Amino acid sequence: MENSPQYLFLASGVNNGEGFWIVGIKKCDENILEDENLLDCHRKELLGNESAKDILLAINLNVDNLLNELRNKNYLIARPSMGIPFDIPLEILENIFDFWLEIYKNHEAWEACLGLLKVRKRIPLTNLIEGKILKGNSKKWAIKIETLHTYVPSSLKNEKLNDPMWE
Known about the structure:
Strands 3-1-2-4 form a four-stranded antiparallel sheet. By secondary structure, it is of the alpha+beta class. Helix 1 (49-72) packs across helix 2 (90-103) and helix 3 (107-122) crosses helix 5. Strand 1 and strand 2 (18-27) form a beta hairpin. It is 43% helix and 20% strand.
């Protein structure tokens, strides 16, 4: 496959009155905001096609991990029909976008961080950090990846009480 230049972008949008964030890829000769659902572009980086796909995969996995963790902790997080919910602040998404874009420049760091992110999907990295299992750069990157997963919304938790068994 040709490694043609692509824009990796972070944008905000609205679809049927519902706001969302989106991280995506567009050909470099296309205007990102041509899409009628997109309102504003917050990050835009010109990359090779394969690099853009790799970074997009890591960003999406990071965001999915974060959203799954928040939902597992019973936070009320919207599920927009497309993209990432506005419940996640732009600053958090920019930090995730910037981290994965920057770490991609160092192949060794990229491989280690992507592996840590995949582990993070199953278990928090704090166990590995506190247990002194990770050392050196792996520990440093694990701490950074863990900080990308520390957002806690100000929205209320979904406190669903179970009905008593005897009724």
